[in-house]
């Protein structure tokens, strides 16, 4: 036990430093974060304290109000920090992949399964909803990437549903901040073993593609990249 205590003490400053850093980053995008958190904490604590005086137990309800005020403040802080992070990531290359990595348990993400010369990219996630292809880039260009990748998925795992999403703010697109929620709302049609089998099939495809004898070094001068995407893509 004595050995675990120093480790725990060393972890606490790290957590506090991380919270402070998150607050500073959030404050850059959300100038009112301090006032909002203070307001939430004061209101929750004040309500419970007032109820405590009314029922004759101000100490008990005051302590409860303090704990709930801390909880409410933490929840609000987490949501506003997440919103600020999405705002900073919006439009950045690879932002969708970062969100996919944090969708939750049961999902396996493979970033950049398809890409073109303009760096429009398609990411793949596999879960109980099936295969989800997420594209980011120019909406007109990524449609061809999505169509080619979806056709390949249907050929390899024909019995697994394939969904396609384009990240953006235009019509028919999914905003980055709503990507995780959208994926979690997809109907679950696969069991755990079926998800494992699907991942194994796709992993075998990736290994096969990575073992193909592709030329190393820079692309020869005058050589054009195929319209379907990057010749080095998996």
TrEMBL record:
Start-end of Low complexity biased regions: 219-234
Protein name: DUF4191 domain-containing protein
Domain of life where this protein originates: Bacteria
Pfam families recorded: DUF4191
Keyword Transmembrane helix: yes
InterPro entries in the cross-refs: DUF4191
Annotated transmembrane regions: 33-53, 59-78
Region (Disordered): 208-234
UniProt keyword list: Membrane, Transmembrane, Transmembrane helix
Native source organism of the sequence: Streptomyces rochei
């Amino acid at each position: 036990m004595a050995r675990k205590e120093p480790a725990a003490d060393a972890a606490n400053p790290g957590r506090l430093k991380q919270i402070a850093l998150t607050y500073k980053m959030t404050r850059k995008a959300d100038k009112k974060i301090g006032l909002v958190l203070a307001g939430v904490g004061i209101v929750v604590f004040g309500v419970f304290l007032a109820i405590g005086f009314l029922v004759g137990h101000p100490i008990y309800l005051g302590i409860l109000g303090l704990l709930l005020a801390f909880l409410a403040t933490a929840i609000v802080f987490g949501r506003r920090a997440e919103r600020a992070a999405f705002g900073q990531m919006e439009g950045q290359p690879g932002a969708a992949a970062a969100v996919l990595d944090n969708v939750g348990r049961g999902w396996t993400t493979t970033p950049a399964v398809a890409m073109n010369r303009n760096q429009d990219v398609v990411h793949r996630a596999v879960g109980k909803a099936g295969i989800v292809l997420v594209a980011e880039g120019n909406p007109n260009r990524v449609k061809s990437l999505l169509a080619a990748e979806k056709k390949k998925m249907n050929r390899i795992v024909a019995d697994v549903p394939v969904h396609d999403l384009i990240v953006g703010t235009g019509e028919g697109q999914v905003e980055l901040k709503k990507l995780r929620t959208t994926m979690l709302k997809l109907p679950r049609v696969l069991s755990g073993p079926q998800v494992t089998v699907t991942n194994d099939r796709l992993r075998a495809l990736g290994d096969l593609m990575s073992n193909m004898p592709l030329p190393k070094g820079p692309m020869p001068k005058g050589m054009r990249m195929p319209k379907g995407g990057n010749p080095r893509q998996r």
